[in-house]
Amino acid sequence: MTSLLGVVGHPLGHSLSVPMHMASIFTLGIDYVYLSFDILPEDLSAAVAGFRIEGVKGINVTIPYKEAIMPYLDSIDEHARIIGAVNTVNNDNGKLKGYNTDGIGYIMSLKEQTGFSPLGKCVLILGAGGAARAVAFSLLEAGIGKLIIANRSVELNMAEKLASHIKPHFPGVHVQAMPVEHLPSLPFQELDLIVNATPVGMKHTKQQEIKELSGLLQPGHLLLRSDTVISDVIYNPAETPLLKTARLAGLKTHNGVTMLVYQGAESFKLWTGIEPPIEVMRRAVLHALEEVH
Ligand code: NAP
């Protein structure tokens, strides 16, 4: 019987996960299929019940269900529980366990693309949403020494909230929250890694938003050390305006396509126990980005 994998979200549009995982499945010649499930919020519970049946091996979870799916699962892996979001569900004989592979995908891809070694390093993360949370916890688990989280929302104070959530788990690490407007006052020379974990720079982002965010970093570009790595979790486009500026300034860059591929590879290993072909997955994503997006 063909085993079923898939991604659940809403709206899904042309999910890159489908061509990425189908490319792996074809290359490996295994009897699996990976489908997309565009599910309305009111149907999520019924959909999860359907994922328990024999034959469904695993599911990816994307916006807006990474948190909403958690109460419907039988257990949650410790790393995903601390992050507070699940992007992968594994079906073990009808028992559903939630994982989060975004962070490990981030760390593995960062290492592959730039050789960055997190131990003791100073990191600035822009944004305090789901991606920022996964990236922050994984970098902290990998041993960074200092984390600065900059976010725009002053009212909700998302950066403060994330910093307070992190501190008890990593008491020895210096964690600081700040509004994005204060970025120009940062000691940029100290930074080893800057991560954009906001959607600013995605295809169709308003030029004004890009200008506002990169404008705040502009003085920093001039003062950054030449070995500072600039990273962006956005995968469409593969090279965002921030990464282009950094590349032209001679800095090392890391993009969201590689992160997407490695988080997918980690999910694939959980479901099948098989090491997937990274290069095939990467080519499939880049091809799909050219074709559809
Ligand atoms: P999210 O939970 O909605 O968080 C978005 C964050 O960006 C929030 O902190 C938000 O601040 C901030 N932000 C939004 N617009 C902004 C603007 N114009 N200026 C400054 N800050 C702004 O979203 P998410 O799930 O973290 O996703 C963020 C990005 O990561 C998306 O582009 C997504 O595609 C990407 N992602 C990539 C991967 C991958 O594998 N490569 C995996 C996951 C996510 P406020 O609090 O002020 O709203």
Major beta sheet summary: 6 strands, mixed
Q: Quickly count the domains.
A: 2
The sequence of SSEs as H and E is EHEHEEHEEHEHEHEEHEHEHH
Count of DSSP-assigned helices: 10
Overview of the structural elements:
The chain is an alpha/beta fold and 293 residues long. The protein is built from ten helices and twelve strands. The chain folds into two domains: 3-100 and 258-292, Rossmann fold (3-Layer(aba) Sandwich); 103-255, Rossmann fold (3-Layer(aba) Sandwich), CATH 3.40.50. The protein has a six-stranded mixed sheet with strand order 2-1-3-5-6-4. A six-stranded parallel sheet has the order 9-8-7-10-11-12, sandwiched between helices. Helix 4 crosses helix 5.
How are the elements arranged and paired?
Layout: E1 3-9, H1 17-28, E2 32-38, H2 44-51, E3 56-61, E4 75-76, H3 78-83, E5 88-92, E6 95-99, H4 102-114, E7 122-126, H5 130-141, E8 146-151, H6 158-166, E9 174-179, E10 193-196, H7 207-223, E11 229-232, H8 241-248, E12 252-254, H9 256-272, H10 278-291
Parallel strand pairs: 1-2, 1-3, 4-6, 7-8, 7-10, 8-9, 10-11, 11-12
Antiparallel strand pairs: 3-5, 5-6
The structure holds NADP nicotinamide-adenine-dinucleotide phosphate.
